Amino acid sequence: MQAPIILVIGAGPNIGAAIAKKFSENGYRVALAARSLSAGLQPNGTLHVKADLSSPKSVPQIFLSVRENLGIPNIVVYNGAHRLTTPEDDPFSASLETLIESRNVGLDSAYVAAQEALKGFKELPDSVPTAFIYTGNALNQIAIPGVLPFALPKVSAAMVIEYGANAYGHKGYRFYYADQREADCLPASLARDGEAHANMYWELGQEEKQSKWLVTFTKEKGREEFLGVDFEGNTRASYDEEFGR
C-alpha cells in the first residue's frame, strides 16, 4: 500500500511549512502548491506545484500534478486567502472587482479544491482516512470592522464546509473549518502559529469519523469551542447593545 499523501494548497513559510513537517515526520508524502514555488519533485521527495489561486480554473491542474507524481491525496488543506480591506466606517466602499478578487482565492478556488478532493477520496480504500481542512478565522462568526472583502469568502467557505460535513462526513469524507484563537478567545490573526495548526490538522486528519465541522482551537490547549469575537472582545450581542438595537 502506498504511503498516505497530504496536499497543502496555498502553502507558505508558516502554516504550510509546519504542516508539511508534521505530516512528513509521520510517514506522509507531501505536495505543496503556491504561486511562489518552482514546480517539481524536491530532493526530500516533496512535490512543489506552481499555482495561482486567483484563477479557480487552475485548481484541477494541481490535483492532476499530485496524482501523476505522487498519487491521490487523502488529506487536503486549503490555506489560500487574499486579505483585502476597507475603512472601518465605510465597508461598502469596496468595489465589486475587489470583492471578486478576494473571493476567487478565498472561496471559488477553495470550492473547486473541495470538489477535486472529494473525487479523489471516493477512489481511495475505505481504510484510508480522508479530510479536507480549510484554514479559516473568526470572520464566519462576526463582522470585524474593516475587512468586508476578506470576510465574505470566509463566511461562504464555512458554509461550503458545513454542507460538505453534512453530506459526506457520515460516508467517511470529512470536512473542517479551522480557526485558531488566543487563550482569551480573541482572533489569532497575524499571530497564527504554524506548529499549532500542524498539530490540530494532524489530529483532525486521524479522526475515525466526522466531528463538529467548525474547529476553534488554541496553541495552548488545542480544540476548544469559542463564539465569534473581534479584537476588542466584542460579540454580535455587544454590537447590538453599542448601537442601541
UniProtKB/TrEMBL annotation:
Xref: InterPro entries: NAD(P)-bd_dom_sf, SDR_fam
Keyword annotations of the record: Oxidoreductase
The UniProt record lists the keyword Oxidoreductase: yes
Keyword Lipid biosynthesis attributed: no
Any one GO MF annotation of this record: oxidoreductase activity
Gene3D superfamilies: NAD(P)-binding Rossmann-like Domain (3.40.50.720)
The organism's place on the tree of life at top rank: Eukaryota
Annotated Pfam families: adh_short_C2 (PF13561)
UniProt record similarity statement: Belongs to the short-chain dehydrogenases/reductases (SDR) family.
Name of protein: Putative short chain type dehydrogenase
